[in-house]
Sequence to fold (81 residues):
Amino acid sequence: MTRKLLPLAVVAMIGLGGCADMNHTEQRVLSGGAIGAASGAVITAVTGGCVACGAAIGGAVGAAGGYVVDQVEGKKHHSER
Fold:
């Protein structure tokens, strides 16, 4: 299992290297997607499911969650001003 996850970790680290020019929303969506993909891969690996499917679904859910959190916190900060 470790041999399968190592390339995924390397790709994620390379992808995160380009975050410097991203705005706050893009950073939230990316981090949510990365956390979701990693969680989905681990959960499906443990349960014996399709690891790629779990990573894809987890990534999509995590990215959507990151976007929603960013929008909710953005509205909260604007209403406090």
